[in-house]
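Retro notes (design track)

What went well: tokenization of the new backbones is finally stable.
What didn't: we kept losing track of which sequence belonged to which structure.
Fix going forward: every design gets posted as structure first, then sequence, in one message. First example under the new rule, 258 residues:
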């Protein structure tokens, strides 16, 4: 069995304070019996971060934000600084998600500035990269595309402390309702090329997780047939019991679901 796995969820623009409390109650109860070298992280909408931090204090659940600005203060109406996230106790921040790249025109350069600012503020970073549908199946072009995303996002990062950076490979063609269900074989090649690129860029061992239409049915094969260090789950982790089932099935504590 793989060790030291990371399982995370991005709530996107979902959940309420009440549902969040049910979720944290269920997941933190599960964490008491979880192998201690696994890491669980959750990215709620900003207003729920203080509640989650309070309700999960001392449990080891990593609570992060879904975005931040690259400046630490200033005239940026509607934005949130990494310094403020750090001060309220957030542990990490998700940057480079495909939905932000597409819907909010975030470029690799913008994401690079955010990654640098967040790490300097003392936050951990979950950096998303991934190719769109036009590159699906084109291995050489996909490899170059992912290398470019990584090179720009990480170019201002001289050194990374252990556990401060996680890379999430989320191919755009697999994300969300309407996304194509991923086959382990087709993500395996991308994951190993990301691993090679990262090894050339930073000394630390950076966990690489897979995200995009992870389900109870495919979690185990994605985990066991690729070099992934974990799974990053969207809509199928909003129900805490399903999130736990996906984890348990993937790591082999339950028999594989047909
Ligand atoms: P889905 O699991 O809903 O495809 O979303 C994945 C994702 O975007 C995680 O950031």
């Amino acid at each position: 069995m793989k060790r030291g796995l990371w399982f995370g969820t991005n709530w996107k623009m979902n959940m309420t304070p009440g549902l969040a409390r049910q979720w944290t109650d269920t997941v933190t109860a599960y964490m008491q019996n979880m192998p201690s070298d696994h890491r669980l992280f959750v990215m709620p909408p900003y207003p729920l971060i203080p509640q989650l931090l309070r309700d999960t204090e001392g449990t080891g659940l990593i609570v992060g934000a879904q975005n931040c600005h690259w400046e630490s203060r200033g005239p940026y109406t509607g934005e949130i600084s990494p310094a403020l996230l750090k001060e309220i106790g957030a542990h990490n921040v998700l940057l480079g998600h495909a939905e932000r790249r597409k819907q909010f025109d975030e470029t690799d350069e913008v994401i690079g500035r955010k990654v640098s600012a967040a790490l300097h503020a003392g936050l951990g970073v979950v950096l998303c990269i991934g190719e769109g549908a036009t590159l699906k199946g084109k291995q050489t072009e996909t490899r170059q595309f992912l290398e470019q995303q990584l090179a720009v996002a990480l170019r201002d990062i001289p050194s990374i402390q252990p556990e401060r950076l996680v890379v999430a490979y989320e191919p755009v063609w697999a994300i969300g309702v309407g996304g194509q269900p991923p086959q382990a074989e087709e993500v395996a090649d991308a994951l190993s090329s990301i691993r090679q690129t990262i090894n050339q860029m930073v000394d630390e061992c950076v966990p690489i997780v897979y995200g995009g239409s992870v389900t109870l049915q495919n979690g185990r094969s994605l985990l066991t047939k690729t070099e992934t260090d974990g799974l990053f789950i969207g809509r199928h982790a909003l129900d805490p019991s399903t999130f736990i089932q996906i984890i348990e099935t993937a790591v082999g504590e339950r028999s594989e679901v047909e």
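Added context from the reviewer: The pocket of 1,3-dihydroxyacetonephosphate is lined by residues 10, 97, 170, 175-176, 179, 211-214, 232-236 (CB under 6 Å).
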